[in-house]
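Table S2 (continued). Query chain:
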Amino acid sequence: MSSAILFAKAYFKNKSSVFWITVFPIFLLLIFGNIYGGGGEEQKIPVYLSAEGDWKNALAVLNGTFEIRLVQGVENPVQFVLNKTLETRRPATLVVAKADSIDVYSTSAIWGKIVSEAVRGVVYNVTYSRFMSRIPIMPIPVVLPSTPNVTLTVIGANATRASLGPVRITTTLMLVQAFSSGITGVAGLIAALVAAGLHKRIVLFGVSRLKTALNVVAATLIFSLASTLMLLAVAQTMFKAGHLLLNPYVWIAYLLNFFMFAGVGLLLSNAVTQGRAAPQTIITTSVMIFLTFAFISNYFIPLEVMPRGMAQIALALPTSYTASYAYVAALGGTPTPDVLMYPTAATAALFTLGLLLFKPYRKP
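Corresponding output:
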């Protein structure tokens, strides 16, 4: 028993073990508990409606399930949906109702299917079941045409050879890999140099702080790019999603994520180089930051399923902008550069701050 107590004390002195066994499960509980456990006010999915005549009122009953937003004069439905996806940073769905047809456009195969089936339900209720008092219906004197066809168009499904699921997952993993490498790669490499005592050679050879920082970032970027190319090779082999390799917009978002978090990694590493924290502690901290952003920035968990409060936090993060920018590009759209003003400013500020404040060694 005394040996067990001794081992237990040694265990609790290991901050890394305490984090992964104790703190990390609590972190997951807070994240997933709020998302799937009703931890906040639920959101209604925005659905844009462009309707003519009586269908405008008939389809308004969907406002109980979705957040119906009326629009007019949509000349290019595909571009409209892509623009709204970029603007709101979540999948957008447009319903265009005409006298003899109803077309549903969406950047999400899942939400597009849900909305189109809901529209079909309204069409059935209006056309065949007006006598059902439980369902809001149009006044009896209104005469609607025979049942119109409801067609669903998933944006991006024809733009690539791959289905949208693997394309989105591959894009997500590319962006996550970028900021994961940026923070954990930079902090981990510097921590390894400190553990080996190699950072002291910087003083002996007179290497400047700026040059040291840039060399660390460059080495990490090379490793990150190599890992991403391997990911794309597998995505192409398994899912035909390797076309992202030639998409410049996705790579712009990738580089913004990398350098944004590389700056954070440089700032964190000061705690190691100045002797204020153990290397393993900094690595654990960097992983915690990386996972936090991955879970609440529209990467692993879509914004549309988050509670309203958590979604507002996610929308305030610069990484949600890079995610939306890359997703729209992956669907075959051309995202506008103004979306990147905020993440570009955040990247410039964090990376510059990291370079200026980086201290590779402690002065005697």
